[in-house]
Write a structure and sequence with these properties.
about 5% strand; two-stranded parallel sheet; globular; about 45% helix; 6 helices
């Protein structure tokens, strides 16, 4: 799947290996270690020449408690991105399609640029169902889609 995503021209970012908050946010070495583990996995799948400098912190990088983690990520050559809009699919299971669409509209309202948090796991079927209407809404409101590099 990662190979296909990459070959189709999509950007791939690092999101840590385990996504285990208790471990990765216990100390900076754990966080950077997980980024390095994931980097090795990417290289194993996509080739030794593969590089990414994109990171998204599990749970976001928001708040004072993660300031030292943000600094460490930058010091290790990464750029991190947080979301400023979301559809709410991480807030529960089987959230209705209409609720996801409305949550996106509410959190996107009035923002010129968006980075939207959505998940593409098999358990997020309503996210897939909501996506066409979300894209249509964004296009009607003059948003353009771009790739992070």
């Amino acid at each position: 799947l990662i190979k296909r995503i990459y070959e189709e021209g999509h950007s791939i970012g690092n999101h840590t290996y385990s996504h285990n908050y208790n471990h990765i946010y216990k100390k900076i070495d754990n966080f950077i270690g997980e980024l390095n583990t994931t980097k090795k996995v990417f290289k194993n799948i996509l080739g030794e020449d593969f590089e990414t400098n994109i990171v998204r912190f599990p749970g976001g990088s928001f708040g004072d408690k993660k300031a030292s983690f943000r600094k460490a990520v930058i010091d290790n050559g990464y750029t991190y991105y947080d979301w400023n809009s979301l559809n709410g699919d991480a807030e529960g299971k089987n959230i209705s399609k209409n609720r996801l669409i409305q949550r996106l509209k509410n959190t996107a309202n009035g923002k010129r640029e968006l980075i939207i948090l959505m998940h593409d796991m098999g358990t997020k079927k309503t996210t897939v169902e909501a996506l066409p209407e979300i894209i249509e809404h964004l296009q009607k409101n003059d948003y353009e889609f771009d790739i992070l590099k």
